[in-house]
Amino acid sequence: MQRSPLWLRYAVIAWVFTLVGVPLIFLFDKAGAPGWSAIWSALHNSATDHAIGLTFRVALVAVPLNTIVGIGAALWIVRHPSRLSQLVDRIIDVPLAISPIIIGLMLELAYAHTGWLGRPLAALGIKIIFSFPGIVMACLFVSLPMVSRQLIPLLREIGNNQELTASSLGAGPIRIFMTITLRSIMWATAYGVSLTLARVLGEYGAVLIVSGNITGVTQTLTLDIGNNFDNYNAYQGFVGASVLATTSVVILLILGLARHRERKRHEHLARAPR
Amino acid sequence: MSISLEHLVKSYGNDTVIRDFSDVVPDGSLTALLGPSGSGKSTLLKMIAGLESLDGGRIVLHGRDVTNVPARHRNIGFCFQDYAPFYQLSVFENVAYGLRVRKMPKDQIAREVEEMLRLVRLDAFADRFPRQLSGGQRQRMALARALAIKPDVLLLDEPFAALDAQVGAELRLWVRSLQRELGITTILVTHNQSEAMEVADRVVIMNNGQIEQVGVPAEVYDRPSSDFVHSFLGPTTYLEGRPLRPHDVELVSVTDGQSGIITDVIRLGFEVRVVVTLADGSSVWAQLTHDDAQYRNPSIGESVGVRRRVVR
């Protein structure tokens, strides 16, 4: 590979630094300046505390669900192509193209207690909008393609000869999935899961609509941050934002590792004698 | 174990790839399914293994109808053209895979795998991973993996196509002797006629999802049943509209055969090709051995006669 010219490298670094680095530094500076005890008490603000807990509870449900759905959808689209699966392949990216706030409005229209699906559910005593299930649904919607988009091209590239060989050796579908398929898609899945997690933790617009933004009840961390800024409680917001930013940096590191492993795998493939 | 294929049919949408295919593969034979790409031979092989569904017909393994038996219960060893190594598993674990599925005790697995690896001469590579093997080693690993389950039938899809010529040639002979040693009924798919001739004791020539001809290699080569088989099995030239092998074209004096003029002489080491353009404008080529060419010394522009060699 040709080395990029020096000016281009500096330009890119300056651009990223101005856009991402500087704001991030100022955020941590603002949150950290008053000292550890201030951070500590801010973290123990009851609203923020609850918001952090809720956010991670939502992630705990939404991320595994979306991972399972993503793996299933990718396998279905690649391994059992049909008109229906091709249609799903095409519309699975829709959440990326629609603004989250519109996604929130759509969910509310369908699942509010007056909505088409919400009414029968309300009759059964199940509340979706303004409660935990609605927040999870909004997060699932916005992160829908995150896992399957990673897996679809990979599964196509690997092909299914290994799986067919395993079945000729006597293995059933579950064993084949656990011993062959899952092992080959592990790192790409990890990458997709990190993207899902990042998206779920950071979601604002869709969750704002469906949760009702009730402090101490349905307020997630992003909503709490927004709330604090609206109420001239900027410091509380900075601390909350720092928690999210730190989590994101950790996710980024995991993501980097997953990509690194994927790249190594590809290099191996390229070098493999044919 | 004999394999009986009865009126097999397979189509993808409107595209019929296997049309009423019937054949009986004798017990212990090595049969080559030979045909150009797109003739349906790989699809047929997958159908036998149960890796591809049927749209019609029956598959009977030694008297047992397996048409509706899933692949994993057929006990058939299958090797893909790309060998489909389990990249995440070591060579040992690749070979052990089918034995672990069969819940064989650990120490017995260790013994059997070691024996298989010795058989395919990979005993020193048990702890390696597929990516650390050469193409030929991967192919032998795939063979060991398929043979480890003691299959009733061995199916090989283009086993030598992905190897370079020299490695492929060595492995052909080795696979041939291994098959004889084990006596396992084997079907091998190939598009390479010399590979089929060299390895198989029975050749099934396929075209458009149907059988063109079945026979032992020498028979199909010497007595091809159609123009297709003739031209597919070896170099073919036409004299009086009929196909013949270029080594059956004899150069004689103008009066003894059809008269023509030599328009090209191509020397390829041992083989010399002489192109003769006949009076009617058609051309035929004769294959001479180096010695023949030395003796006759054909030259461009020379008037000659050509005729079909008389078999004495």
Overall description:
The complex is a heterodimer of chains A (274) and B (312). Chain A has 274 residues and is mainly alpha-helical. Chain A has one domain: Orthogonal Bundle (MetI-like fold), CATH 1.10.3720. Chain A has 14 helices and no strands. Chain A has helices spanning 6-32, 36-43, 46-79, 83-91, 94-97, 100-111, 118-123, 132-143, 145-158, 161-168, 173-202, 205-211, 221-230, 234-271. In chain A, helix 8 (132-143) packs antiparallel against helix 12 (205-211) and helix 13 runs antiparallel to helix 14 (234-271). The longest helix of chain A has 38 residues, at 234-271. Chain A is globular and about 65 Å long. The two termini of chain A are 23 Å apart. Chain B has 312 residues and is of the alpha+beta class. Chain B folds into two domains: 3-229, P-loop containing nucleotide triphosphate hydrolases (Rossmann fold); 244-308, Beta Barrel (OB fold (Dihydrolipoamide Acetyltransferase, E2P)). Helices cover 30% and strands 33% of the residues of chain B. Chain B is built from nine helices and 17 strands. Chain B has helices at 41-49, 91-101, 106-119, 135-148, 165-182, 193-199, 217-222, 227-233, 290-296; strands at residues 3-12, 15-25, 30-34, 56-61, 64-65, 76-79, 153-157, 185-190, 202-207, 210-215, 237-239, 242-244, 249-252, 258-268, 271-278, 283-289, 303-308. Chain B has a six-stranded mixed beta sheet with strand order 6-7-8-3-9-10, with helices on both faces. Chain B has a five-stranded antiparallel beta sheet with strand order 13-17-14-15-16. In chain B, a hairpin with a 2-residue loop joins strand 11 and strand 12. The two termini of chain B are 41 Å apart. The mean pLDDT of chain B is 92. The chains are: A mainly alpha (274), B alpha+beta (312). Chain A binds chain B through residues 159, 161-162, 164-172, 175, 179-180, 183-184, 268, 271-274, and chain B through 46, 49-51, 70-80, 82, 84-89, 97-98, 101-102, 131, 134-135, 142, 145-146, 149, 162.
